[in-house]
Design a protein that fits this description.
It contains 18 helices and 4 strands. The protein has about 475 residues and is mainly alpha-helical. It has one domain: Hydantoin permease (Orthogonal Bundle). The strands form 2 sheets. A two-stranded antiparallel ribbon has the order 1-2. A two-stranded antiparallel sheet has the order 3-4. Helix 8 runs antiparallel to helix 14 and helix 16 packs across helix 18. The structure holds tryptophan (TRP). Tryptophan binds next to helix 1, helix 2, helix 5, helix 10 and helix 14. The site of tryptophan has 16 residues, from helix 1, helix 2, helix 5, helix 10 and helix 14.
Length: about 475
C-alpha cells in the first residue's frame, strides 16, 4: 500500500504551521515577549528560531522524509542502529502524554466557545472603573475554578471538563481516521487561514481601545535592559515547544512532505508564520489589558479568567463582548486542534506501522486510532481529574498535569532535538542529507550547507548547554 502523503504544497505548510501555532503561541509567547524586552525579545527569538530551531526542524524533516516511516523506524533507518529507535519511541510516547494534557485545555476552550456564543461574556459595558473590572475578573476566576473542579461543585456528577476532554480527543481521532491528506491537511487548509483572519480581526478591533498604544508598546518597544541570560533560555524553550520539535511530530510530518518540496522553504515559512501569529495574538490581547489597567499574566489564568472579564467590559454595546469572545475561543480551539493533530499523528503512524497482530498484519488507521483513543483518553481523564480539589494525582509535588508539562518540555524536548541533530550531522552520510535538503539539487545548496554546519556543530552544543542550565 502506498504511504500517506500531503497532497499540496499549501496544505503541507498549513498542516505544519498548524502544528506549530498552538496554545503556546497564544497564551505564553506574548507574555514572555512583553516581560523580556518586547522588540528586543522578538529579535533574539527570531535569531534563535533561525539559527537553532530551523536546523533542528530540518534535521527532523530529513530523518522522516528519508526514512519514509514513523519516528521510531526512521530513527533506526537513519543510522542502522536499533538503540536509536528507543529515542524515537520515547518521543512518540512523550508526544502522546503532551496530547493528554493538551486535550484537557482544548476541552476548556470548547466549554468557553459555548459560554461565549450563548452570551455569557456579552459586554455589560457602562463601567470600566477599576473595582468593577476587578469584580468581574474575580467572578470569572470563580467560574473557571468551579468549572475545572476547584470549587467542589460537581463531586457527584460527571465533571464537564472530563466530558469536553473526551469530545476533543474523539474529534481528533475522527479527523485522523480520514487520513493524512483527507483529514489533517484538509482541516488545516481552512483552519489556519481562518485562524489568521480571526487574529487579524481581533487585533484590528483592539486599535480603537484606549490602551492600544500602551499595549502595542509593551510588546513592540525594544527594552534591552530586560534581556538577561534567562531570556535566552526562555526563548529557546519557547521556540522548541512552539515549533513542535523534539516529539516526533515534525519527523512524522516530514515523512509526508512530497519529494520535490523545499524543506528549507517549508521551515522558513512556518517559522515566520508562527512568529507573526504570536505577535498578532499579543496585539489582540494586550490593548485590552492596558485599557482596563489589569495586570498582564499568561496561561489559563489569562485566557480563561482575565480575558472573559475584559470582553464583558468592552465598549460598544453587548454584542461586542459576544462577538469578540466567540471569535477568541474559536481561535483558541483552531490553534489547539491543529497542534493536537500532529501529536496524535506521530502515535498513529507508529501504531499502524509497528504494531502487528496475528503475524504480519498491519493495523488500519481506524483501529490504531481506537486504541490510541482509549490509552490517551485514560491519561487525559486523569489529567483533568488532577486539576480538581482534593486530587491525589500528584507526582513530586506537581499535579499530574503540570508534571507531564515539565517533564516533556524541560527534558524530552531538548534531548529529542539534540538526537535529531546528531543523527543528521554525525550518523547520516553528508551526501544523503544534502540531496534530501536540496531535493536532489533542485534547491540552493549554499544555504543547505550552512544549515548542515549549524546542525552538526552549533545546535547540539547550544541545546545541551541550555538544557543543563535550565535544569540547575
Ligand atoms: N506547538 C504547539 C504549541 O505551541 C504544541 C505542540 C504541538 C507541540 N505538537 C508538538 C509541542 C510537538 C512539542 C512537540 O502549542
Amino acid at each position: 500500500m502506498a504511504r500517506n502523503q500531503f497532497a499540496s504544497k499549501f496544505g503541507t505548510m498549513a498542516a505544519i504551521a498548524g502544528s506549530a501555532v498552538g496554545l503556546g503561541n497564544i497564551w505564553r509567547f506574548p507574555y514572555v515577549a512583553g516581560n523580556n524586552g518586547g522588540a528586543a525579545f522578538l529579535i533574539i527569538y527570531t535569531v534563535i528560531c533561525l539559527l537553532i530551531s530551523v536546523p533542528v526542524m530540518l534535521s527532523e524533516f530529513v530523518i522522516g522524509r528519508k526514512g519514509q516511516s514513523n519516528t521510531y523506524r526512521s530513527f533506526i533507518k537513519a543510522n542502522g542502529k536499533k538503540a536509536w529507535g528507543i529515542i524515537g519511541g520515547v518521543e512518540i510516547y512523550a508526544g502522546l502524554a503532551i496530547l493528554a494534557f493538551y486535550c484537557v485545555v482544548a476541552g476548556w476552550s470548547l466549554e468557553y466557545i459555548f459560554a461565549a456564543v450563548t452570551g455569557e461574556f456579552a459586554s455589560i459595558g457602562g463601567g470600566d472603573a477599576a473595582e468593577l473590572i476587578n469584580a468581574r475578573i474575580a467572578a470569572m476566576g470563580q467560574r473557571f475554578d468551579i468549572f475545572v473542579g476547584q470549587g467542589g461543585a460537581h463531586i457527584l456528577s460527571i465533571p464537564r471538563p472530563v466530558v469536553w476532554t473526551i469530545i476533543f480527543l474523539g474529534l481528533n481521532c475522527v479527523v485522523l481516521a480520514f487520513g493524512v491528506s483527507k483529514g489533517i491537511e484538509r482541516c488545516s487548509k481552512f483552519m489556519i487561514p481562518a485562524l489568521f483572519l480571526i487574529l487579524l480581526i481581533l487585533a484590528i478591533m483592539s486599535v480603537r481601545l484606549d490602551g492600544f498604544s500602551e499595549g502595542a508598546a509593551f510588546l513592540l518597544k525594544p527594552n534591552w535592559d530586560a534581556v538577561t541570560g534567562q531570556t535566552i533560555i526562555f526563548a529557546l524553550g519557547q521556540s522548541f515547544f512552539s515549533l513542535s520539535l523534539g516529539m516526533g511530530a515534525m519527523t512524522t510530518y516530514g515523512s509526508y512532505i512530497q519529494k520535490d518540496q523545499s524543506l528549507v522553504g517549508v521551515a522558513f515559512i512556518v517559522v515566520l508564520a508562527t512568529i507573526l501569529m504570536a505577535i498578532l495574538a499579543g496585539l489582540a490581547i494586550f490593548p485590552a489589558t492596558f485599557t482596563f489597567g489589569v495586570e498582564v499574566t499568561s496561561g489559563p489564568g489569562l485566557v480563561f479568567k482575565t480575558l472573559p472579564a475584559l470582553f464583558a467590559s468592552l465598549p460598544g454595546g453587548p454584542w461586542v463582548g459576544v462577538v469578540v469572545s466567540s471569535l477568541f475561543f474559536i481561535l483558541l480551539f483552531f490553534a489547539a486542534v491543529t497542534s493536537s493533530f500532529s501529536l496524535l499523528e506521530a502515535g498513529t503512524a507508529y501504531v499502524t506501522e509497528e504494531w502487528t497482530f496475528g503475524g504480519r498484519k498491519q493495523l488500519s488507521r481506524p483501529m490504531a486510532l481506537t486504541i490510541l483513543f482509549v490509552l490517551v483518553g485514560a491519561l487525559a481523564v486523569l489529567c483533568a481529574f488532577s486539576q480538581m480539589e482534593g486530587t491525589s494525582l500528584v507526582i513530586m509535588g506537581d499535579s499530574l498535569f503540570d508534571f507531564i508539562d515539565k517533564l516533556t518540555s524541560n527534558i524530552i524536548l531538548p534531548i529529542g532535538g539534540i538526537a535529531a541533530c546528531i543523527l543528521v550531522g554525525w550518523r547520516m552520510e553528508d551526501k544523503i542529507v544534502f540531496n534530501e535538503l536540496t531535493s536532489e539539487g533542485q534547491f540552493n545548496g549554499a544555504i543547505v550547507r550552512f544549515f548542515m554546519f549549524l546542525a552538526k556543530w552549533v545546535c547540539p552544543i547550544v541545546i545541551f548547554y541550555m538544557f543543563i542550565k535550565g535544569l540547575i
